[in-house]
Amino acid sequence: MEDAEDEVRRVLAESTAGWREKYPQVEVQHTVIRGHPVRVLSDAAQWGCCW
């Protein structure tokens, strides 16, 4: 499972690299959360999206 999470983090970092360079003042956090997407997104909306 850790290998899959590492791969997700790598893909996220690569996907946002250009945007981070273009908008360095915007803070970006890559967080991998296990769980059903509906529950995870619902919790994020309820708690302000930051863990």
Give an overview of the whole structure:
The chain has one domain (2-46). It contains two helices and no strands. By secondary structure, it is mostly helical.
Short précis:
The chain has 2 helices and no strands. With 51 residues, the chain is mainly alpha-helical. It has one domain.
Topology of this protein?
Layout: H1 2-22, H2 37-46
List keywords for this structure.
mainly alpha; 51 residues
Rg, please?
A: 13 Å
The share of residues in helices is: 55-70%
Q: How far do the termini sit from each other? A: 20 Å
Tell me how many strands there are: 0
Q: Helix/strand/pairing class, anyone?
A: mainly alpha
Shape label: flat
